[in-house]
Give the backbone structure.
Amino acid sequence: MGEFRTVGVVGAGTMGNGIAHVFALNGYEVTLVDVESEYLQNAVKTIEKNLGRQVKKEIITPDAQRQTMDRIVTSTEMASLAGTDFIVEAATENQKVKFDIFRQLDEITSSEVILTTNTSSISVTEIAAETSRPERVAGMHFMNPVPVMKLVEVVSGLATNDETLQAIHQLAESLGKQPVQVQDYPGFISNRVLMPMINEAIYALMEDVAEKEAIDEIMQLGMGHPMGPIQLADFIGLDVCLSIMEVLHEGFGDDKYRPCPLLRKMVASGRLGRKTGLGFYEYE
Ligand code: NAD
């Protein structure tokens, strides 16, 4: 462990519960905040279940599972983050929501505290500008599922200072993650490279170049991708894919990022992928 002991995680959804999981497993005292206690209860259940999986696979001991759970407290009050050493925000991907949260965090926490966001597509520089400490605001972009994926894309806003970045890198390493440094441009690196590939695969499907299974098989067997792009789009959520393509399209003003009409049609029809039971594929 580095210089931090207590960590606040804002948002207890898919990413927030995974982030709380890895911090607590690695010895940090975590306060997990969400707007409804029901979401927090669900998050705690998910963390316990995922830790249980790690016990089964003998990655961690039953003792570590218990100690990890003991290091997590939950709250519906942002004010409960007042004394924490470090913050990761993983709330809903909505600019207004994030701006509000960062204004609150800026008031609640000591001015020395580093505030990070797990955003996939909102400008870290703009989020930082909502606070009085933009030099201590950065992106800490974890990948889903957080306990499994090694990468943390560390995003430097225009004002972020080196001390802050260094502290985030050390912190990520203390979680057993590999931090990789990028600048704040639309989609950073991960989504700027991934999403156009997914979008192109959907274009190829729309143009009937090949069946969806064939497109996925080609990328899996030929390029060594663990999941084909169509399957991956369903896994991520087609609405999320569309909104990130729109961010790239608008952010760069370049038509090479135009979202595929078939992707738009799928989202309009409510076929959002695995989470709705139906996307390009059908799920149980
Ligand atoms: P999610 O919808 O599963 O969870 C978001 C949570 O934030 C919800 O529980 C919601 O109640 C809570 N929330 C909303 N407003 C809040 C507020 N004011 N205070 C506290 N909590 C609040 O979303 P997610 O998939 O976990 O995504 C969270 C963030 O992580 C987003 O910025 C997203 O872009 C990013 N991200 C997601 C993935 C992914 O694969 N899901 C991957 C990388 C990054």
User: Anything to note?
Assistant: The radius of gyration is 19 Å. The mean pLDDT is 97. Strands lie at 6-10, 29-33, 72-75, 86-89, 114-117, 137-142, 151-156, 178-183.
